[in-house]
Amino acid sequence: MIAFTGSPIDRADNIRADPSVLAGLMNWRARLLVMDGLNPVFDDAGSLTWGTLADAEETAELVFLGMMAGKACFAAVPDQGAGSPAYADPAIWQAMQVLSPGDLALYGGARSLVDWHARHRFCARCGATTKLAKGGWQRDCPDCAALHFPRTDPVTIMLVEHEDRLLLGRQPRFPPRIYSALAGFVEPGESIEEAVAREVYEEAGVRVRDVTYIASQPWPFPSQLMIGCHSFADDPDLTIDRTELDDARWFTRAELETARAAGEQGTEDLVFPRSYAIAHHLVTWWMDK
Question: Do residues 185 and 154 make contact, with C-beta atoms less than 8 angstroms apart?
Answer without folding.
Answer: yes
